[in-house]
Design brief:
It contains 12 helices and 12 strands. The protein has 348 residues and is of the alpha/beta class. Helix 7 links the parallel strand 9 and strand 10.
Length: 348
């Protein structure tokens, strides 16, 4: 029998993640806040080192690359890109070459995700932010042409693996989440995730609609504004429908994005976000990062307090990983006082 996802024929897929991931209640935090019962879908546990949401998308993306005979994965992102780190690790596992086009100029000893990129042997090409932003498509095309001229067979993966292929990752993830909710006996009013390239939100939006779970999917933007993400998510869903002949009117799906929690910019967290990161670590032993999940969880808490999200019932937060990015911002976390008096201790 051919595999299906939400009743749809599945495209090629590699089983790379440790699935299903748990759905867990954050009861201590929920009692402290006095609002809805908050649950977390632990996609930070999708794998040890390649953890997070990206591995779900890459199960389909790398399967397509192999189907096309690729021997090298070429992708892009910021210096601390979770997607690039996951691609580097999975490429190493599968015996594929990996080349990364990164935004930003590294200084000093590589840290966080960049350290792991280098550890896996991925070839890193780093560019100043302005050049990267203005010429990313040309840079990827030039590196792909160089690889082909050298006899390699590159497969280009867009930012975050957020495209028609990558949408499948969270269509499948949404089907898994719907089963989790049925087992837990809950019908969450909202499902919340960080939105950085749009693919996770696109898959969740389509997948939960196909699974028949009556819930609102909200993306908390970590870069760009709500209008940009609404266009991007609809574009990814439209491309997914066209590529795979999906019989779902994706144009009618609501794409809900909040852009009030970006702060100073991508990968720049303020003291309030670090406070939330510290709160979750102390109250639940749950680690968030300052780039994606910390901002998104902070935004979700603010929306609960403001009354936009459910004041009672259940809310699910999709934890998309990012632990290694937290280590790369140790100095910023310390400057924000995230350890506080309780974390200081004495030196003997």
């Amino acid at each position: 029998m051919n595999a299906t996802i939400c009743g749809l024929p599945s495209p090629p897929r590699l089983r790379l993640a440790r699935l299903p991931t748990p759905l867990e209640p954050l009861d201590g935090l929920s009692r402290r806040l006095g609002g809805p019962r908050i649950w977390v879908k632990r996609d930070d546990l999708s794998e040890c080192a390649a953890s997070g949401n990206k591995i779900r998308k890459l199960e389909f993306t790398i399967a397509q690359a192999l189907a096309e005979g690729a021997d090298t994965l070429l992708t892009c992102g910021g210096l601390q890109s979770n997607h690039c780190r996951a691609t580097a690790l999975l490429g190493a596992r599968l015996g594929l070459g990996v080349e990364l086009v990164l935004r930003g100029e590294p200084h000093g000893v590589p840290d966080g995700n960049l350290f792991l990129d280098r550890l896996t042997g991925a070839v890193v090409h780093a560019y100043p932010a302005r050049r990267y932003q203005q010429a990313l498509d040309e840079l990827l095309a030039a590196h792909a042409a160089r690889l082909r001229a050298a006899g390699r067979r590159p497969f280009v993966i867009p930012t975050g693996a957020s495209d028609a292929i990558g949408v499948w990752g969270y269509v499948a993830g949404a089907a898994e989440l719907a089963e989790d909710c049925a087992r837990a006996g809950i019908g969450p009013a909202q499902v919340v995730c960080a939105t950085g390239s749009g693919g996770t939100q696109a898959g969740l939006t389509a997948g939960l609609a196909l699974a028949g779970l009556a819930t609102e999917v909200w993306g908390i933007a970590v870069c760009d504004d709500a209008a940009w993400f609404e266009r991007k998510v609809h574009a990814d869903l439209g491309a997914w429908r066209a590529r795979y002949g999906i019989a779902l009117d994706v144009d009618r799906l609501a794409v809900r994005v909040l852009d009030a929690y970006i702060g100073a910019g991508y990968a720049q967290a303020d003291a309030a976000v670090f406070d939330t990161i510290g709160l979750l670590a102390r109250e639940e032993g749950l680690l968030l990062d300052p780039v994606y999940t910390g901002k998104a969880f902070h935004g979700m808490l603010e929306e609960i307090r403001a009354g936009r999200f459910a004041r009672t019932g259940d809310v699910v937060f999709v934890h998309t990983g990012g632990l290694f990015g937290l280590f790369a911002q140790r100095a910023e976390a310390l400057a924000a006082g995230v350890l506080g008096a309780a974390g200081a201790g004495d030196v003997h």
